UniProtKB/TrEMBL annotation:
Belongs to the CdaR family. Gene3D superfamilies: PucR C-terminal helix-turn-helix domain. It comes from the Bacteria. It holds the Pfam family HTH_30. Residues 188-294 form the CdaR GGDEF-like domain. This is Transcriptional activator protein. Residues 342-397 form the PucR C-terminal helix-turn-helix domain. PANTHER family: CARBOHYDRATE DIACID REGULATOR, DNA-BINDING TRANSCRIPTIONAL ACTIVATOR ADER.
Length: 405
């Protein structure tokens, strides 16, 4: 789409508006992210941490791409944004089995961006004719930019789909998908295609990175580290997306060795499933790893490593985040926002079955120090600890894994 170049005055107004759009207000970005990740059509994207993070990166990429183009050449057509951020999300969508219909998020984002741009435009001039001319050109530009970008991303998705239907990687992904879906594939055939025995106990994991500039090669090193921590030579690793690996190892990775390995791999996060044998164990462990990953994302947890057995209760309690927040607030009262030393002390005390001596030893503090902290914590609870010990323990578990505001 093309249009006559606007007069110099309108070009100058567009340039000034684009400079404002280059530094968008945080609440604008939050609204844009919320809109593009809401609704039934985008539920699968919002539930997937890697896809959700990629969508947020794409929102910023598109906004800054259009704004920067209009600073350089105000009012001129903007080419499609086929940079790495939107292309990476396109690859990930295809690898999750999504199609081009997932790109309706671009249209949702366009409507939010148009409203934001209109608000900016209304601050640039009081002249109705200037405002009309400014909006006429810039809204055409936004529409054409989104159309061209969606077309470019659709073409990339078609190419990615063609690539994934060829070669050994496609065969491995297809086999894993059949196993996870419970399809009638024999164990012998699946083992032959995967190069991985299915009878022994399995532990599945999901390794991913949600930082925009993460070194994705570290994901493969994380998969190898999981195998080493389980005493294995190599893992079964499947590329689930540009920034996600699905991993299976025989046995169970040692938690301390896994945690030490992750310290050397910044930006990588790992969710580890349960351990169980056979094809059912292969499937069950992956679903548990997925539950763990989704819980970390749902709670905005800062933790980079979580095992399913550590978070199973918290995952159940926080399936409805709003109800979970209310439960924590009602149960902990003022203790919810108390210093971490109080909440950590009470959590360890409960984990040690209310044995003050063992809890003090675990926290490396004097027993009297521990008792003073417990008294302070008890005083902050809405009800005495002795009256609802189980509820307090559960709420503290949620608090432990939830990112503090």
């Amino acid at each position: 789409m093309s249009w006559p170049p606007p007069p110099p005055r309108i070009r100058e107004l567009i340039r000034r508006g684009a400079e404002i759009a280059l530094t968008p207000a945080p609440e604008w970005l939050a609204e844009l992210d919320a809109a593009t990740l809401s609704g039934e059509a985008r539920r699968q994207i919002a539930a997937d941490p890697a896809l959700a993070a990629g969508t947020r990166r794409t929102n910023r990429s598109n906004l800054l791409f259009w704004a920067a183009s209009n600073v350089r050449a105000p009012g001129e057509p903007v080419p499609a944004n086929d940079t790495e951020a939107p292309l990476a999300v396109a690859r990930d969508m295809i690898r999750r089995g999504l199609d081009e219909s997932a790109l309706d998020a671009y249209r949702v984002g366009e409507s939010v961006a148009v409203r934001m741009w209109t608000q900016i435009a209304c601050t640039l001039t009081d002249d109705p004719e200037e405002l009309r001319a400014l909006l006429d050109v810039s809204l055409r530009s936004i529409s054409a930019f989104v159309d061209d970008t969606v077309g470019a991303i659709s073409a990339r998705m078609r190419a990615e789909r063609d690539e994934l239907t060829r070669g050994t990687h496609a065969e491995r992904r297809e086999t894993v998908a059949l196993l996870l879906e419970g399809a009638p594939i024999t164990r012998q055939r699946a083992e032959s295609r995967l190069g991985h025995r299915l009878d022994p106990p399995h532990t599945a994991a999901i390794a991913w990175a949600d930082a925009p500039d993460a070194d994705l090669g570290r994901l493969d090193r994380a998969a190898d580290a999981l195998a080493e921590a389980a005493g294995q030579l190599r893992p079964l690793s499947v590329i689930a997306g540009a920034a996600t690996r699905w991993v299976w190892v025989h046995g169970r990775p040692d938690a301390d060795r896994t945690r030490a390995a992750l310290e050397r791999l910044p930006d990588v996060r790992v969710a580890v499933g349960s351990t169980a044998p056979g094809v059912d164990g292969f499937r069950r462990s992956h679903l548990d790893a997925l539950t763990t990953q989704q819980m970390l994302t749902r709670l905005a947890s800062p933790s980079r490593l979580a095992f399913h057995h550590e978070v199973e209760l918290v995952a159940l309690l926080t399936a409805d985040p709003e109800r979970a927040d209310r439960f924590v607030a009602r149960t902990l009262g003022a203790l919810e926002t108390a210093p971490a030393e109080l909440t950590d002390t009470l959590r360890v005390f409960l984990a040690e079955e209310c044995n003050a001596t063992r809890a003090a030893a675990r926290l490396f503090v004097h027993r009297n120090t521990l008792l003073r902290r417990l008294a302070r914590a008890d005083g902050l609870l809405p009800r005495p600890l002795a009256e609802h010990t189980v509820e307090v323990g559960a709420a503290l578990k949620v608090l432990q894994w939830r990112g503090r505001p």
